[in-house]
Amino acid sequence: MTPTIEIVPLLVDNYGYLIVDEATGTTGFVDPGEAGPAAERIRARGGRLDWILLTHHHGDHVAGTTELVRAFGARVAGAAADAARLPALDRALAEGEVWDFGRLRVRTLATPGHTRHHVAFLVEDPDRPAAPDLFCGDTLFVMGCGRLFEGDAETMWRSLAELAALPGETRIWCGHEYTLANARFALSVDPDNAALRARLAEVERLRAEGRPTVPSTIAAERLTNPFLRVEDPAIRRRLGLESAPAAEVFAALRKAKDTFRG
Ligand code: ZN
Ligand code: FE
To answer: Which residues, given as ranges, of the chain have pLDDT below 70?
Structure first.
């Protein structure tokens, strides 16, 4: 039995996620940037909330925490290293730590770059070890990546490379709906990528219908996300960085994205 995952749109373009281990009823909510819509969804499922999982300290990911703790008695889990900036933690997670979530396992991956102590949660179902669910906050987005607020390009590149090495079937649930803008930038640096063109068309259709573009998969990102394609010869040629180290190509892409007006 795979976990049930519900996408909960929050604020302007944030996504929170309700995770339910159907075997035990254990329920978690990732990144409650506001409480109202999260609480509504939790009540609709019977009012159980065991855990709040926080990827990083930014307000648009944590602001609903206190209210959800009060309403449902949930406990809070986040990076031990960032405990001073996060809401009060009941479970302070170390890098690489694995904890039991009902019959699921949650692995904490350190993914610094957007913030110094950003983490991603890899939720593994023991029956489907090759197809876990990744909650990656503002590190990896569909066809994009987070801004470098507290890390340099090298640091972010290492975080992304680690995520890119996860199984191809890993589903990606990221912190924002930025996909359309990301896809347009991606096409500007990778215009001959047929998979990317096809995906942009699909994403335009989904957004026109008001539907989310998550989840993606690691396999799809490897094919279409320029930030995971820094070894691609065509992208490198376009940037004039044919033989540069991967982190340097990544830095050039991130810089180009920061000033891109599609
Ligand atoms: Zn953020
Ligand atoms: Fe954010």
So the answer is: 1
Between the CA of 23 and the centroid of ligand 1 the distance, in Å, is: 32
Q: Which ligand is nearest to the CA of 177?
A: 2
Nearest-CA neighbor of 52 among 1, 24, 16, 22? 16
Instruction: Tell me how far CA of residue 232 lies from CA of 38, 152, 215, in angstroms.
Output: 40, 22, 24
The answer to whether 232 is a known catalytic residue is no
Write down the pLDDT at residue 1: 62
**H runs (alpha helix) in the chain:** 36-44, 59-62, 65-72, 153-164, 179-189, 194-208, 218-224, 233-239, 246-258
Q: Residue 20 half-sphere exposure, CB side, CA atoms within 13 Å?
A: 16
26, 20 Cβ separation under 8 angstroms:
yes
pLDDT of residue 2: 81
pLDDT score, position 261:
85
| Residue 57: active-site member | no
Verify cis geometry, omega within 30 degrees of 0, for the bond prior to 215: yes
Report angle CA 16, 158, 260 to the nearest 5 degrees: 70
pTM of the model: 0.98
118 is catalytic: no
Distance 35 CA to ligand 1 centre (A): 17
Cα 129 to Cα 18: distance, rounded to the nearest angstrom? 20
The yes-or-no answer on residue 176 being catalytic is yes
The C-alpha atoms of residue 233 and residue 15 are separated, in whole angstroms, by 34
Q: What's the gap in Å between 250 CA and the centre of ligand 1?
A: 19
Per the DSSP assignment, residues forming a β-bridge with 110 are 119
Annotated active-site residue in 21, 60, 82, 190: 60
The CA distance from 147 to 255, in Å, is: 9
